[in-house]
Amino acid sequence: MKKEYSLAHLTAISTTPLELAKIAANCGYDYVSIRQIYMGVANEVPVNLAEDKKMYQEIKALFKDTGLKLLDIELARILDGVDFTKYEEAFEIGKSLGAKHVLSSIWTDNKEYGIEKFAELCDLAKKYDLTVELEAVPIAGVKSFAEVADILRTIKKDNAGLMMDTHHFNRANDSVELLKTFPSEWFRYAQICDAPLAPPERDKMIEIMRGGRDYLGEGLIDVASILNAMPVVPYSIELPNSRKVEEYGYEGYARKCLETAKKYCDTFVTGR
């Protein structure tokens, strides 16, 4: 099965969706993953494509001219008091540009509320023919993929799936054997990277997560075992590394990320 790759942010949240799409097209990616629901973190440059009509049309033209496609939009977080109004606007824009998926994560510690709101999010996304992939994040409310599986089995939504992020899977200490028990239909795309040994300090872990990940095969995560425990799906390269972006520039770094990912996956990954 042909492996396809998407460009997600590479500590490039300061780029606009159009700039990231151009980089992806220039480097030979199959897809791009764009942020239309912003997190309010440092260096973000929020661009609302529903309001910036010029950029919207330029992205649409770029997709048509290059064959690049939009894989997903992010990040639909479930927070205490979450308001889905802006999420729906992002879903509408994403769908109009050909998006297939929405990335989500649960950040509330109120388990019942998180499950209820995630189910509502799936219903909202279904209106736009979008699936919602739930990601476990080690610093969020839902930290493990075992928890994600429990939620998916609880809500029983046919457009709900599991977002495999190899960094987060490793940090959650989830087992590959558990991963093998999950239904194939839960997997629609995955975020891939490598990383150094997990530090015990929370601040250091966050520092690596947001700006210190490694090329595939150059860290200490057994990425192949993770990917071989699930079907082959499009791989979204989420490999933020501040130092390497400074060294190579966004486009040079994005190209290197793709080259190393293809080499690694072609050599070691067959999927289940």
TrEMBL record:
User: Which superkingdom, per the lineage?
Assistant: Bacteria
Does the keyword Isomerase belong to this entry? yes
Q: Which residues does the UniProt record annotate as the domain Xylose isomerase-like TIM barrel?
A: 23-240
Entry keywords, A to Z: Isomerase
Q: Example GO molecular function term?
A: isomerase activity
- Name of the protein described by the UniProt record: Sugar phosphate isomerase/epimerase
